[in-house]
Amino acid sequence: MKILITLIFCISLISCKKETSNQLETDSLEISKDSITVNKDSIIVLEENEFKKEQSINIKRASILNKKDDKAELKELVLSRSFIKDEECYLITYKYPYLNENIKESYANFNSYLENDYLDIKGVEKAILEEENMNCDPTLTVDNRSQKKVDYKIFSLDDKLISVLFYNENFYSGTLHPSYSFDCLNFDLTHSKFMKYEDFFNTGSEEELRDILNEVLSNKIKSGDVYYDCWEISADDFYSSKDNFVINNLSVEYYFADCVICPSYTGTFSVSIPLEFLKPVLKQHNSNPLL
């Protein structure tokens, strides 16, 4: 009888172990299936995010390239020149305006500054190599090289002044997307000299102008003209960019680098302020072309 009971117990124990083992295998299989589902979802999300980033890059580029300027109207005055440095590790491309010195000899002031100071090819090369922290990586392909591309838009104010917007597209190897930055120059055609903030606006008016700029930006956010997740510009960002504006007959447009006033994906880099809003801060002087 004891032998029979012992035998029955052993059979039950073996059956329990087998059932437990089968259950574990089933659970493991279900977990594995869930893991596969999660991984597939993750891949889909990553692909969607990458697609949105590509879209934003195209929107950003188009917002600059499609911006209308006065280049056609200024074709007698402004000649376009370009410079290309194509190396194994990097590509530098500059397009820039060159004023016709046959119209006025003193336009050499503008041309000399651009070619000798602004372009700064050697400085750009050094910065790229320092950023890359390399001599030259032979595994880089043509498409994966570091690239700096500079092009421009130009605007005129009643034949008194030209405003140049340089837009810089910077792409470093190892990064997925380029970044954008801007430089603005205002040149007085009458006196052949560059003009700064203080030539247009009252000395010490930076905070007042920043308030005007932020009010315009805030109204655009509320009206839906720009993305709701943009933000007001800080004092530090404004002071470092206070000369970074272009002018036309209707407005002063301030330009800022990626992520200064809006997230990178929005493609929003500038705030245009109607001239009538700027009356309280305009310098009251005959030399001010905005009056």
- Structural class, from helix and strand content? alpha+beta
CATH fold field value of the largest domain: Heat Shock Protein 90
Overall number of domains: 2
Number of DSSP helices?
6
- The count of strands amounts to 9
Overall pLDDT level: 80
First-residue to last-residue Cα separation: 117 Å
| Proportion of helical residues | 25-40%
CATH class of the largest domain: Alpha Beta
Please characterize this protein's 3D structure.
This protein has 291 residues and is α+β, with helices and mostly antiparallel strands. The protein folds into two domains: 67-195, Heat Shock Protein 90 (2-Layer Sandwich), CATH 3.30.565; 197-291, Actin, Chain A, domain 4 (Alpha-Beta Complex). Helices cover 40% and strands 23% of the residues. The protein has six helices and nine strands. The strands form two sheets. It has a six-stranded mixed beta sheet with strand order 1-2-3-4-5-6. Strands 7-8-9 form a three-stranded antiparallel beta sheet. A hairpin with a 4-residue loop joins strand 5 (179-188) and strand 6. The termini are far apart. 19% of the residues are buried. Residues 1-36 have low confidence and may be disordered.
